[in-house]
Amino acid sequence: MTNRLLVPVSDSGTLRQTVAHAVETAVEAEPVDESAATIHFVVALSRAQPVDADEPPGELLDRVAVWAAEDRGDADLSIETALIGSAEYLFSPDDYADVLAEYAADAGLDHAIFDPGYNPFGTAPLLPPLERELERRAIVAETAPVQRDRRFPSLVERGTVFQALALGAVAFGFYLLLAGSVAPFELVTGAITASVVATALWGVSLTAPVRPGRDVVRVARLLVYVPYLLAQIAVANLQIAYVVLHPDLPIDPEMVEFDAAVWSPLAATTLANSITLTPGTLTVDVSRRTFTVHTLTTTARDDLFDGGLERAVRFVFYGRSAARGAGPAEREEVQE
């Protein structure tokens, strides 16, 4: 397998796993020349295809790039994204193969990895005939070996040893925190309780794979994030105190919406709670990436739209490169 890959993407339940597989493949592959490992994530969008209003193609590519950067870590891997085919009418596997092969030739790529849920047009299954068409154009195509979506996903997933250990460790630590003691009795009863919790709930509480290295890094970033959040809360408290004590009570309450650049339930929950903890703002509803927030003052709105909290949360879950992204106002994803 070459270390220069083409990965066509469309929104699916297995896209995240496919990105991780592609990054692992590119990093571990033997280089065919002196060029650095590179992955080109592309969205093939037909001129006849309606654009998803909830997540335009550019945002899907941004999300994939953040995932890939997170999985890359410190490895020497270049990540490229592109939107192709938007000026053409793409109907058949042959049409899609033409635009993908043209892009691959321009970028010097001859290997493609497909998400098993790849279906850019959302109608008839496209993947098997598309792979055959690319093979005819001298491009090696393979489907990522990831678990396919179930039509009706079950509540309980098959757990792993790492998941059980992680859940047990969290339960044990929480038990000792509540007990407020590390006496032998508390250690023994805590270990027993944690074992019961891990055995009973490891397939329910932790349905995603546990990656110790990544999770340790996230915890370290979270420790950096907490002081930042406390500082934001302190500043907001002073601002609200000024408003309350001002003779004219200069408040301007307003309900606003914005789309946040976070793509996992845990990241969205962290951002929503952080907004609520900051005086002057209250998260009312979260639907996918759309946040509905009640703001008390103009200053609170401006700070929210600037995206400081959002970038800090992205830092925790996706790394430093994601923290440098634009805020909601700069992305023009604000509705007042």
UniProtKB/TrEMBL annotation:
GO terms for molecular function: monoatomic cation transmembrane transporter activity. It is found in: Cell membrane. Keywords: Cell membrane, Membrane, Transmembrane, Transmembrane helix. The keyword Glycoprotein does not apply. It comes from the Archaea. The keyword Membrane applies. GO terms for cellular component: plasma membrane. This is Cation:proton antiporter. It comes from Halococcoides cellulosivorans.
